[in-house]
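ok so i was messing around last nite and threw this chain in just to see what happens. nothing serious, just curious
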Amino acid sequence: MASALQNPTVAAAAAADALRMADLPGRGRGLVAARSVREGEMLLSEPALLLYPSALASLRAYCAACFRALPADSAAIPCASCRAAAFCSPACAAAAHPRLLCAALSHGGLATAAPAEAVQEPLLFLLSAYSLPDPALRALLSLSAPPPPPGAQDAAGLHAAVAALAPPHALPAGFSPDLTAALLAKDRGNSFAIMEPYRPGMSLELLKARAYAVYPRASLLNHDCLPNACHFDYPDRPGPGNTDIVVRALHDISEEREVCISYFAANWRYADRQRRLLEDYGFRCECDRCQVESRWKDDDADDNNGDDAMEEEEGEEDGGDDGMEEEGADGDDDFPHAYFFVRYLCDNEGCWGMLAPLPPSPNGELSHVFECNLCGKLRKEEDAMPDEGSSGMVH
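result:
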């Protein structure tokens, strides 16, 4: 995995010209390729506008500033103010952590106010967001957000909890229930999870979020059920920028083509994808894959797993530019996009993360090695063979 980011600074500089924002008909704002992109290229490397712990339990395990795993040898530096959080280094201790979160932890009221994990996450977000300096808070509020779904978070109750936990003089101007509701919508529509890195022998069930982060530019990436890019976290890598989001191209992307990621595991079935997108993001997906799967009969879903299509496409080469989009575009096959899953879906048992090629070498040579963005598995391109005809799709 380390080879994916041998020189993050150089790679980030090379990615600076890869994307541009565009207004896309029917899709709102998005990011498109500003030039031709090769597979594995880093498209974006961006620091977080806002970082906050996923739960109170994270405070015992991770640095409160950079979310690296805290050393097990008691070398962690406790927060001088709240003593509930700790830092991995003097530099992180000097950077501190969100002031309102620190204040809420100082008098012990936070654990009482948020006994359930479902309440902890939005409350930790609000205390961290309201700690931002005014320009950063305005930048957060400028992000797009979907309308709240039925049964959305109790904004009024969370607002009252923030008011009870935070010193009144520390709250920003304009602090109000409406502002709290607006912030919660930004969190729901724009936050990325920073995952616990997979380690050999680790149960995949332990792959949970250490923290959440908001990245203004990455938040412009729209969803596609057959994405052409995916994002990575490297929270324990040495040096600065360990919580930066890294987005890499799955395959060649032509100039002006929209760059998309998947907002969840790519092997979800059609009904589950549509439900999640509608509830959390306020839209129904009409991508090529969804148009094919929408025609499947519910009673045939378990049988129609794309095996036949995959066997037919097994020997086909990746067309490169724009990936699998044109393979089986007429929709005659049961699942014309099955080759996508053979090539880009991790086959580690229970994982189903996305496999992106490692970046090309400085001389432009392609790596032909793929890295999973969830478990970190490295797989050679020649090993991307179907397992007895199964695409790994859930129907």
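not much to say yet. Residues 301-332, 387-395 have pLDDT under 50 and may be disordered.
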